[in-house]
Specification:
The chain is α+β, with helices and mostly antiparallel strands. It has a single domain, classed as PK beta-barrel domain-like (M1 Pyruvate Kinase, Domain 3). The protein contains four helices and eleven strands; from the N terminus they run βββββαβββααβββα. The strands form two sheets. Strands 2-1-6-5-9-8-7-11 form an eight-stranded mixed beta sheet. Strands 4-3-10 form a three-stranded antiparallel beta sheet, with no helix packed on it. Strand 5, helix 1 and strand 6 form a beta-alpha-beta unit.
């Protein structure tokens, strides 16, 4: 099953996000109360738990969802292989993928604490097309796959 493992939030940029049970994602804004939210193309960040496991396999112990500053930690989908423009339905929300990976900024707390950051290669970013709540355990539907199979 493709699902949400964790919803994560922080009030400051460049820090580890804290896990919350659910969040409200606003159109053209992102996760309400999150430092990265705003009217731009990287309103919401997503990272697969599989990417976190890869980091653990490379010898970094104790990693948890939110530690790479992602808003949504997923399971069962290879996010970084999704084409830009892919629409994902998560809970009540529809997101559109806008960017794969990013340049890691200097002084990043995550890189300092963890030693390596997987977001630049395997994290993705999206904008909110339809707002609503996303919570831990919500299923993730790749809407592009639905249209292609009809």
């Amino acid at each position: 099953m493709i699902k949400v493992i964790s919803v994560n939030i922080s009030e400051k940029k460049g820090v580890i996000k804290e896990r919350i049970e659910q969040g409200f994602f606003k159109i053209n804004h992102g996760l309400d109360g999150d430092a990265h939210a705003g009217n731009w193309h990287r309103q919401v960040s997503l990272l697969g738990i599989e990417s976190i496991y890869k980091m653990e396999e490379s010898g970094i112990d104790g990693l948890t969802p939110g530690q790479f500053a992602e808003n949504i930690t997923t399971e069962g989908i290879t996010l970084y292989e999704l084409p830009i423009g892919t629409k994902l339905k998560i809970g009540e929300v529809i997101l559109e993928v806008t960017q794969i990976g990013k340049e890691c900024h200097k002084g990043c707390q995550i890189k300092q604490l963890v030693g390596e950051c997987v977001m630049p290669k395997e994290g993705i970013f999206a904008k909110v097309l339809e707002e609503g709540h996303i919570k831990t355990g919500d299923s993730i539907i790749n809407m592009n796959m639905l249209y292609e199979n009809n």
